[in-house]
Amino acid sequence: MAEPIISIRDVSKTYKSGLQALKPINLDIMKGEIFALLGPNGAGKTTLISIICGIVNPSSGTVTADGHDIIRDYKAARRKIGLVPQELHTDAFERVIDTVSFSRGLFGFAPNPAHIEKVLRDLSLWEKRNDKIMALSGGMKRRVMIAKALSHEPKILFLDEPTAGVDVELRRDMWAMVRGLRENGVTIILTTHYIEEAEEMADRVGVIDKGQLIVVEEKNALMRKLGKKQLTLELPAPLERIPDGLNGYTLELAAGGNQLIYSFDAQAEDTGIPALLKRLSDVGVDFKDLHTEQSSLEDIFVSLVHRTT
Question: Is the pLDDT at 263 greater than 80, yes or no?
Fold first, then answer.
């Protein structure tokens, strides 16, 4: 089992206005994993990241990053962390290569032109290295923010809504880069409301709602535990009601009686489908087509958040 690189203990945040942005949170993030923090807007994702990165002080609790307390040992902890914030703040008049090189120096690291070149090449920015940031497109500016976060070779990388408002090509490039970083031992924490992003990338998923961490689970285990499968039978003629002979099955009519939907546990040894199909034949219900589908992480997320409202 990997060891935690980030340990969060009883961390909460209440602002002077009385708003409780985070209820006490306990969480370990493991070395080398991709951890996705999901939640609706205003759920507390950015507040939690800002606390871990030392930008916002918690009202209670402690955070350690790679063994360094984020408050007592701020400088050492912060050197381990790269942060790509949601907002694009970059000095518009600087050249790309200057702003990325300067970021490395901010963390007290000696110049390393070879590393800066590699980062810029990985992000398809090398050809733009002498361009002023103000001349770049929004997607390219986002890449510059990532390059700045990687300039000091952090062990932990935070991506706060990294692909909000970026095109599909950049999204794919970014995910290829994230996978490459993980292969080199970097731990990635991303917040997102694009659930397909978490579904594709994450090892574990945490769901936060109204400042409370409501579930932390391996992605595949979460899908298994909460994911349902449905068998949809397309009927040749609409049914007004489900025949009495099918009472023992979890069935519902849909599409104006033209579909019969059977819900079952995808992990169960016996799905009950063969018996159901035989029973349909016995009671004289024909079907012209059938297909199965499994609930996505999005369905699970929506049901979890609704459960807490």
Answer: no
Residue 269 — very low, low, confident or very high, per pLDDT cuts 50/70/90?
A: low
- The conformation of residue 150, written as its DSSP 8-state character, comes to H
Alpha-carbon span 95 to 10, nearest angstrom: 42
At residue 220, the 3 state secondary structure works out as: helix
Most confident of 11-15, 213-217, 241-245, 299-303: 11-15
Residues 6+ apart with CB under 8 A from 301: 38, 195, 207
Mean pLDDT of 227-255: 73
Lookup result for tokens 């849909």: 254
- Tokens representing 229? 């499968």
Give me 250's structure tokens: 């979890």
CA 51 to each of CA 21, 113, 144, 163: distance values in angstroms, whole numbers, following the listed order: 11, 31, 23, 22
Q: Residue 160 and residue 72: Cα distance in Å, rounded?
A: 24
Torsion of CA 259, 304, 248, 282, to 10 degrees: 30
What are 106-118's pLDDT values in tens digits? 888 999 999 999 9
Length of the chain: 309
**CATH code, 8:** 3.40.50.300
Looking at the structure, tell me whether residues 67 and 148 fall in a common domain.
yes
CA distances from 101 to 17, 93, 113, 118, 219 (A): 39, 15, 8, 12, 37
Please check whether residues 251 and 211 belong to one and the same domain. Answer: no
CA 309 to chain centre: 21
Euclidean distance between CA atoms 119 and 73, whole angstroms? 28
The residues, ordered by sequence, that sit 6+ positions from 292 with a Cβ below 8 Å of its Cβ are 229, 230, 231, 232
- Assess contact for 187 and 29: CB atoms under 8 A: yes
Q: Are residues 204 and 278 in the same domain?
A: no
